[in-house]
Design a protein that fits this description.
- The structure holds two protein chains of two kinds.
- Chain A is of the alpha+beta class.
- Chain A has three domains: about 110 residues, Orthogonal Bundle (Butyryl-Coa Dehydrogenase, subunit A, domain 1); about 120 residues, Butyryl-CoA Dehydrogenase, subunit A, domain 2 (Beta Barrel), CATH 2.40.110.10; about 150 residues, Butyryl-CoA Dehydrogenase, subunit A, domain 3 (Up-down Bundle), CATH 1.20.140.
- Chain A is built from 13 helices and ten strands.
- The radius of gyration of chain A is 22 Å and the shape is globular.
- The mean pLDDT of chain A is about 90.
- By secondary structure, chain B is of the alpha+beta class.
- Among the domains of chain B are: about 100 residues, Butyryl-Coa Dehydrogenase, subunit A, domain 1; about 130 residues, Butyryl-CoA Dehydrogenase, subunit A, domain 3.
- In chain B, strands 1-4-5-8 form a four-stranded mixed β-sheet, covered by helices on one side.
- The radius of gyration of chain B is 22 Å and the shape is globular.
- Classes of the chains: A alpha+beta, B alpha+beta.
């Protein structure tokens, strides 16, 4: 089976993707992934720094700030890396680190950029986005963590500190992160209604007093998640990323092209989803590749499995869904890259379809393998794990289907 | 077909086309009635109108974008056709002419016709004077088209045809048919076929209309009785009709991605672009506040984008030769699966009103009817099972199904009992 070449790649992009593929092929054989099962970090810092040298952490940073892309379309390039991450169920905080780096590059002050970007891009420092929250704020876009100006001023002109209180979980690589990008609700002393304050984001060093991380159990064997508690953690005004309380919360529920911090959060979500969609496609691609080999090499009743029409037909359907996955993942990357008016629609459509299709395809792959497909020894579960984790985080299929309807209504309402 | 280097660039083509459309083409109806709701008189009027629209495109120089100029085409490229597909959105266009007249029929004539045949028919098609239909399926077998039993016997410079064809769209108002017939029963089935062009309305052809369960009477069955056709209306070599048939089938499978005809951008094979969206259905059903209904609306929209983007990617892959021609079957599978899911979602959204509705809920009632017709999306244009065979065997290289008809005379091949 020759690999399905992507008809939409430039020669430079194909070379770039191939470099990451060879690196992962060399560095993360599946035997290593199995060994990582008991490793609290899930990845090695040296591995991450080497990946950073390949460009994994700087594609979303403009050249002026020390970053750079292959094609001029950094997010589309990053999606190529993410596709390989899915194919290899690779370790490393690709999603969350890139979200943080991109957010600093986009909305950081000159000082924040100078202070943070070099370490984040070199892989010496790990940033992680503390966005999702535990119940009762588990639905996409819900934010319960509160940020309170400690000197009583609330209108964004505070020169004092902010005090963060609440929970963030799951936070990817929380135990390894040097820095959290925390999405919070701004509240004031005289108005406890978080709905009126709007969103604010903070860059919080992991060793800030009041910040603690407890490791969570997780499905993925090379990715780690933590529950981060902010127990009246005080941060200086200089920790604020972007504007404070510039727009009402809830943009994530609608994918609306909001400005200010709500717009920043939506942008971060879109980037995370683009990476997820590419990973889901990669996991699907690898699962189908393994299953193709299996169907041709496995014999029963004197015939290869690939000769049975019942299996051929199901496999043809899966192959068709792989094309849809590629197409939606690429289209989402393009729309988010271009910051098009349909970016929110496309990431949610991608998640709605791939969150189901990738899992169903990979479970079919398991079914085709029979008992061996549900053993720890076989590789299939590595990709199934990665796909399920991607499907459930940054909004479930249900969240994104509902969000899509809200987007459609707003498009209709605006006469678009 | 023209090379991209010696033709008008896309931007200037787009400008010129945009101006011409604005000047000449009438705006599209907001929501035209589905074909199956037209009376016969309305249908005939629409066909006549579409002939005029086709003539207008021809006079404007925009008919048959990728057909060479010597046959009346524009001599441009598939990329220009794509531009036309994008720009025509919002305007009327000769929808009745696209499939099967331009593809598969005109595409097959262009690929296999003699110079004389091409000059006789392609310009007339492009001017709106000839509407073509496929005389392909037979009552004795649907997907197994190479098993045709309609027989053509040579008689001097003529052929005499006997048999029956079925599932011919609009044969009662169309002009010409492309017909696959058996010219030799004593060789294996693929080696005894030939392809003919025939006038539909002439002695020797009786056209019966078939009523579908939704009331549509678009499809026809034809009975050919001692129909005489000149040998000059044969396309391709005698008994080598399957060479033609293979490409014919390819064009049919590729309708979702074909550059031979107008397919307004954003439309998907098998989906009526004017059908109400799931959002509109949910609103009409008063269910937009229901989270489950909102999930269904989102699911449907996402699936629709998956079908559109997936088909477009497959088309790019085939055009760039990253995928072989058989990959067109992937597109057919994908849209077949998605379109049936969409019909199911619309039924769910329409609720009880899909099966019993007041006048003002006609839209919801149509969702019930559409559901009854749901499997058409996996049947018409070659069943989805045929595409699954094609993809698994000829795209993925899996072993082919055993067959009983390859190495024996067609006469000896077991056949279905006559059913109609």
């Amino acid at each position: 089976m020759k690999l399905d070449l992507n008809p939409d790649l430039s020669a430079e992009q194909a070379f770039f993707a191939e470099t990451t593929r060879q690196f992962l092929d060399d560095k993360v054989p599946t035997s290593l992934l199995r060994e990582l099962r008991g490793d609290p970090a899930g990845f090695g810092r040296d591995f991450w720094r080497q990946g950073a040298d390949l460009g994994w952490t700087s594609l979303l940073v403009p050249e002026a700030d020390g970053g750079g892309s292959v094609s001029g379309q950094g997010l589309e390039d990053l999606a190529l890396v993410a596709f390989e991450f899915g194919r290899y169920a690779a370790p490393g905080p690709l999603t969350t680190a890139n979200v943080v780096t991109a957010a600093v590059a986009r909305s950081g002050t000159a000082q924040q950029k100078a202070e943070l970007l070099p370490g984040l891009m070199s892989g010496d420092r790990i940033g992680s986005w503390a966005y999702a929250e535990p119940r009762p704020f588990e639905r996409l876009g819900a934010v319960g963590l509160r940020a309170r100006p400690s000197n009583g001023h609330s209108n964004g002109h505070s020169n004092g500190q902010y005090v963060l209180t609440g929970h963030k979980a799951p936070v990817e690589s929380a135990g390894q992160a040097d820095l959290f990008l925390v999405t919070a609700l701004l509240v004031t002393e005289d108005n406890e209604d978080p709905g009126t304050g709007g969103l604010a984001q903070f860059l919080v060093p992991a060793d800030t007093p009041g910040v603690s991380v407890r490791p969570m159990r997780t499905l993925d064997i090379s990715r780690r998640y933590g529950h981060v508690v902010f127990d009246d953690a005080a941060v200086p005004a200089s920790a604020v990323l972007g504007e404070v309380g510039a727009a009402a919360s809830g943009a994530a529920a609608s994918g609306a092209a909001a400005g200010g911090t709500a717009g920043d959060v939506e942008r971060q979500l879109q980037i995370a989803l683009v990476i997820q969609l590419a990973e889901l496609t990669g996991a699907m691609d690898r699962g189908l590749e393994l299953t193709t080999e299996w169907l041709f090499n496995r014999y029963s009743f004197g015939r290869p499995l690939a000769s049975y029409q019942a299996l051929k037909h199901r496999f043809a359907d899966m192959r068709a869904w792989l094309e849809a996955a590629h197409a939606l993942a690429d289209a989402a990357a393009r729309h988010v890259q271009e910051e098009s008016g349909r970016a929110g629609e496309y990431v949610s459509a991608g998640k709605s379809v791939l969150g189901v299709a990738a899992l169903e395809v990979l479970q079919e792959c398991v079914q085709f393998h029979g008992g061996i497909g549900v053993t720890f020894e076989h590789d299939l579960h590595l990709y199934l794990r990665r796909a399920v984790v991607d499907a459930q985080l940054y909004g479930t299929v249900v969240d994104h289907r509902e969000r899509l309807t809200t987007i459609l209504e707003s498009v209709e309402g605006s006469g678009g | 077909m023209a090379e991209a280097t010696d033709v008008e660039d896309l931007a200037s083509f787009r400008d010129r086309l945009r101006g011409w459309l604005k000047e000449n083409m009438p705006p599209a109806d907001a929501r035209p009635a589905p074909y199956h709701q037209l009376s016969d008189a309305e249908e005939l009027a629409q066909v006549a109108h579409h002939r005029e629209l086709q003539r207008m495109l021809y006079d404007g120089g925009f008919a048959g974008i990728i057909f060479p100029k010597e046959y009346g085409g524009a001599g441009l490229t598939p990329a220009h056709q794509q531009v036309l597909n994008e720009e025509i959105v919002g305007y009327q266009y000769p929808a009745r002419f696209q499939v099967p007249t331009f593809s598969p029929c005109a595409a097959v004539i262009y690929e296999f016709g003699t110079e004389e045949q091409k000059r006789a028919h392609l310009p007339k098609i492009l001017r709106g004077e000839e509407i073509w239909m496929q005389f392909l399926s037979e009552p004795g077998g649907g997907s197994d088209v190479a098993g045709a039993q309609t027989t053509a016997l040579r008689d001097g410079d003529e052929w005499v045809l006997n048999g029956s064809k079925i599932w011919t769209t609009g044969a009662w108002w169309a002009d010409w048919g492309l017909c696959l017939a058996r010219t030799n029963w004593d060789v294996p089935k693929h080696r005894g076929l030939s392809v003919f062009m025939l006038r539909i309305h002439q002695p020797g052809i009786e056209v019966h209309r078939i009523e579908m369960l939704n009331g549509s009477r678009e499809f026809c069955q034809e009975f050919l009785t001692d129909l005489r056709i000149p040998d000059t209306d044969r396309i391709g070599e005698v008994d080598a009709g399957w060479t033609v048939g293979t490409r014919w089938m390819y064009h049919e499978k590729s309708l979702g991605i074909s550059p031979y005809f107008i397919r307004p951008a954003g439309s998907m094979r098998g989906v009526n672009p004017w059908a109400p969206t799931p959002l509109a259905v949910a609103r009409q059903a008063g269910r937009l506040a229901d989270p489950q209904a909102r999930q269904l609306v989102g699911e449907a929209h996402a699936l629709k984008l998956a079908g559109q983007e997936g088909s477009a990617r497959i088309a790019r892959g085939i055009a760039a030769k990253h995928l072989n021609d058989q990959a067109a079957g992937l597109s057919r599978i994908l849209t077949g699966l998605i379109n049936t899911q969409l019909a199911t979602i619309n039924l769910k959204l329409a609720g009880a009103s899909a099966v019993a509705w007041d006048e003002e809920d006609q839209m919801l009632g149509e969702m019930g009817v559409e559901f009854l017709m749901r499997q058409v999306r996996q049947i018409s244009g070659g069943t989805i099972e045929m595409s699954r065979n094609g993809v698994s065997e000829r795209f993925l290289g899996m072993p082919r199904e055993a067959r009983r008809d390859n190495d024996i005379a067609f006469r000896e091949v077991p056949r279905s009992a006559p059913s109609r």
